[in-house]
Amino acid sequence: MATFSIENFGCRATDADAAALRTRLLASGFENVGEHTRADVVVLNTCTVTAAADSQAREAVRKIHRVNPGAHIVVTGCYAQRAPEELAALEGVQWVIGNSHQTQIPELLRDSISAPTIAHAAGGDFFPLARLDGENLSLARGPAKILSGDIFAQATVHLAPGALAGSDRTRPILKIQDGCNNRCSYCVIPFVRGRSRSLEPGLVVEEVRKLVGAGAQEIVLSGINLGAYGRDLMPRVELASIVERILNETKLERLRFSSIEPHDVTEDFVALLASSERIAPHFHIPLQSGSDRILGAMRRWYRAEHYAERLHIIRRYLPGASIGADVIAGFPGETEADFQSTVEFIERLPFTYLHVFSFSERPGTEAEKIAERVERETIQKRARALRALGVTKSAAFRASQAGQILRALTLARGSEEWTEALTGNYLKVRIAGRHAANQWCDVPLPVDPVGIGEPLEFHPPLIRNGARSEDRRASRGSPESSMPEAPLP
Fold first, then answer.
1. Of 241, 247, 225, which is closest to residue 176 (Cα–Cα)?
2. Which one of 137, 153, 159, 401 has the minimum C-beta count within 10 Å?
3. At what angle are helices 105-114 and 12-27 packed, to 10 degrees?
4. Of 188, 193, 170, which Cα lies nearest the Cα of 14?
5. Sheet bearing 31-32, strands edge to edge
6. What is the residue-averaged pLDDT of the chain?
7. Using an 8 Å Cβ cutoff, are 428 and 455 in contact?
8. Distance in angstroms (rounded) separating the CA atoms of residues 489 and 149
9. What distance in Å separates the CA atoms of residue 379 and residue 357, rounded to the nearest whole number?
């Protein structure tokens, strides 16, 4: 039996793709050994959102080939879709397969590994072309074989049956939307993911039921542009409606969302999240810049004060919710005044953490053509300042939650002395003692948090084995609630 391992790079959507691919390989008779050094096949599911992500993937190829020169290295994902020739030229890579044909990887590998003589007889291209007759693809000869096609021809969201149930994740990710119709000037993702498309609501509910049946306590809904869910369906469906169906038609304990765009964070949507104990009070809303001039150059669909209004709505309904953001440092043309606008904007708003990215030129994007560049040293200096500000915001939020009793889910990570757990409002905590993963517990946050940037540590919690208790969190409220608002970071 051939063995495999998968290494994933990038966002929650690629995590979901890797989980689906893992399930397909297992169903095709491959054995998952996890370690690259022991695997016959190593699959790298790549990201291409930054140049650093590309570099990380190339370095992974070199390292794997060095430690396991006999492995069949297969590179797939967004980088493979964007620049397959770059990856095919790397020593050790045997196949580069774009997002357009990722679902065919198990069949391709089964044929290539079980019939190696075909490769020699066919001059290296051992995949039977007749099987792909009529498909819009390229199958190129070279150092590695390339299987890629028109990503804009994709009309569905690929989901392997029970794709995430076989994952080793405590909190499985369910991708219900793929692709993006936006054209932010810095972003290459629409060109490697295609148009926005959504999983049918009935399939979403069915998959949630499967995951709950397999033991999932929390599920993370994800997408490339999650807020666009359902707009491509006939009849049109809103994200809020599928959330209501999940709440009404499944027994899922907790639902969490991945990134969602600012214009999709409406008051009705926030009110829906605040109305249920079963939805995590956690928002990740890309900001990118606090300067209106730079937001316009980025082709973002909002301005700074529109974004701020969304955060104020969240704080009215959910005083203790976690609010994270992506921020880009050094976009072309960003002046010192633009940067200071971003810093001041973040300082005055209730962010709880930041994901900071140094601007990275992406081939084929509008931003690539902007002549006015920010010097690399300046970009790095601004990124460091933003990360330091993120640490300060995180510390203030953690301090604001001190003394609260929060509901947390134990994770697989830990040691003999402690177990890591995650609260609904996205605080990582370390509870004393060794506890099984996937258990609910009530955690009293310490009054004097220490180790900012690291999980909070405290004494053994009350393990509740999945039973929900009455709401004891300060993270929920309503516009009419008499609960005092938590101090804002």
1. 225
2. 153
3. 40
4. 193
5. 31-32, 3-8, 41-46, 72-77, 93-98, 145-149, 137-140
6. 85
7. yes
8. 47
9. 10
Q: Which of 284, 291, 294, 281 is nearest to 264 (CA)?
A: 284
154-258 CATH pick, 2.40.30.170, 3.40.50.720, 3.10.350.10, 3.30.750.210:
3.30.750.210
Mean of pLDDT values over 354-368:
94
Over range 69-91, report the average pLDDT.
93
Q: How far apart are CA 403 and CA 459, in angstroms?
A: 13
Give the DSSP letter of residue 324: E
Instruction: Tell me if the domain spanning 3-150 has CATH number 3.40.980.10.
Output: no
Return the pLDDT at 454: 55
Amino acid letter, residue 187: C
Q: Could you tell me the two tokens for 343?
A: 């810093």
Reduced to 3 states (helix: H, G, I; strand: E, B; else coil), residue 93 is strand
Residue 64 pLDDT: 96
Any idea which of 44-58, 147-161, 222-236, 289-303 has the lowest mean pLDDT? 147-161
CATH of 284-401+477-489 among 2.40.50.140, 3.30.750.200, 1.10.3810.10, 3.90.1150.10: 3.30.750.200
* pLDDT for 143: 64
pLDDT of residue 116 exceeding 50, the answer is no
CA dist., res. 213 & res. 206, Å (int): 10
Whether the predicted pLDDT of 141 surpasses 70? no
* Three-state DSSP class for residue 381: helix
Lay out the sheet containing 197-198: strands in order across.
197-198, 173-178, 218-223, 254-257
Q: Strand pairing of 405-414 and 93-98? A: unpaired
Q: 114: pLDDT confidence band, cut at 50, 70 and 90?
A: low
SS3 114: helix
